[in-house]
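debug: dumping io for the single-chain case to check the tokenizer round-trip. Nothing else runs in this session.
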Amino acid sequence: DEFGYWHLHGLLTNVADYPVGGFSLEVHIGDSPVADADSDGVFGVGPGAVQPFNLRLPQTVSSVDDFEVVVVDIQRISLNPVKLEIIQSQLAAAENGIVTLVGEVQNTASVPALIHSARTGLFTAEEELVTTATCQVCPGYLLPSEKAPVQFLLYGHPATAVVGEHQIYIAANEAPMVDGLVFNFEEPFHTYLDTTGGSHLLGDFQNSSDKTLALELTGTFYDQNGGIVGASSYKLPVYALPGETSPYEFILADPLETVTDWSIRVELARTSERIDPVYSLVSTGEEITKEENQWTVAGEAVNESGETLRLISVVVGLREKGTGYLVGLAQQIKA
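debug: decoded output
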């Protein structure tokens, strides 16, 4: 890779008739494991299931051509796997060598599913493995019949001719039903193209529950034929208070020219309730200056809570005069 590390990609198949987990992978040269070989983690694998892996090796093994991958500390585990369906996917390669794979997964089971891992493998036309990757945009929890996007970024393979096929591997387990939380996504939405060619979708949503929540949102973007063309995630930098309206922003690397529709969902697996109090601060002395391609907002946050605060999240939104529509968003964390 660009840092000089070597990567060993492979596929792991559970040939036992029971699920296994709690293990790790080692690369052995001779009788000894390679020091500093770093695995991206392997999760529970059901009977007959396949899971890709990626081992990052130090630069010292560059001249080695004989090695062995060893599974250590393997255990029999209790697992109730849920099979999810990849209902569509799209692979695109850019001139800079970045390959993007975006797809949509659906829970076709009758029970909720908790997704432990989502990985992909790219193959040549001769079905030889080229590379693997973990997901960049990852679903976490799916109710029965629910859909969610999954997106992968892979580097160093600029020629689409190298890649003949791809597979997406989802590891999911049966999960209890989560009580629904109510969120209202308000219209209108605002979109714009930045100076690097990236696309932005901005809007507001309201936490209509009675809980103070840490939230992560995912957006799925479709063309006029309903095909998925992009996905993005956004983690709120501040807690969403009950009844409060919060801004959000999705960013895509490509223009929104082909996008005609989108959907937004709350990732319940990465949603948590805040029990301790959350304090809102007062901002003063705001100054706004406009340059050619950006706005700068400066000011002070005043702590009137009477408590000593360890961390402050500042979110600045630019809104259109007259309508109040959100047209720009920035955030900063101050310790």
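debug: round-trip ok. The two ends are 34 Å apart (CA to CA).
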